[in-house]
Design brief:
about 180 residues; Arc Repressor Mutant, subunit A; 2 domains; globular
Length: about 180
């Protein structure tokens, strides 16, 4: 059974207060909901059930990394559903699903939106990346932006897999620091 809004909200509040067991419970309950949600949406789009599991994991990671943005005075379910919906849209766009494969009620989700924010984001990201050493920049671009595995990135750059991992880690840390200090502008 899918958890209720009251239960999820209570667990999320407890988890934000440091209760690790409550946090595991939130993620466990969400994974059940997400699995059913993604399987249904992907099935209607003629996609593989294995894609659903990838999306569940991506969404749980996104929820984990964005949990600090959850406002405990607001309902939890819409917040989590918005993240899930955007992950699905991004996945379908990234895997180039043809509009004819998407049910009519979901087609609006894939239509072109105002790309102004996307262009600005890309410009900002490029400016931030330009401040990093070439080695870090290439590692981040290959692994995080192009979606290559660490082994593939190592092969393309001639670096070791360990060096790729370290470069990505240090580069992301440097980017986070630049953003938090407002130097990205």
């Amino acid at each position: 059974m899918i958890a209720s809004e009251t239960e999820l909200r209570s667990l999320m509040r407890a988890s934000l207060d440091g209760d690790a067991a409550a946090y595991r419970a939130v993620l466990d309950r969400l994974s059940l909901y997400l699995r059913a949600y993604y399987r249904g949406k992907l099935h209607r789009a003629g996609r593989s059930p294995s894609e659903a599991e990838d999306l569940v994991q991506d969404t749980l990671i996104a929820i984990h990394t964005r949990r600090h943005t959850y406002d405990v005075d607001q309902p939890f379910t819409p917040w989590a559903q918005a993240i899930a919906r955007y992950k699905l849209i991004d996945h379908l766009r990234r895997t180039r699903t043809a509009m004819s494969n998407v049910p009519i009620e979901d087609a609006g989700d894939l239509e072109a939106q105002d790309d102004h924010a996307g262009v600005e984001s890309t410009y900002d990201l490029d400016r931030l990346l330009a401040k990093l050493p070439e080695k870090m920049r290439r590692a981040i671009r290959f692994v995080k932006l192009d979606g290559l595995s660490v082994a593939e990135a190592a092969s393309r750059t001639g670096m070791s897999e360990s060096a790729i991992k370290v470069s990505v880690h240090r580069g992301l840390k440097a980017l986070a620091s630049a953003i938090s200090q407002g130097r990205g502008r």
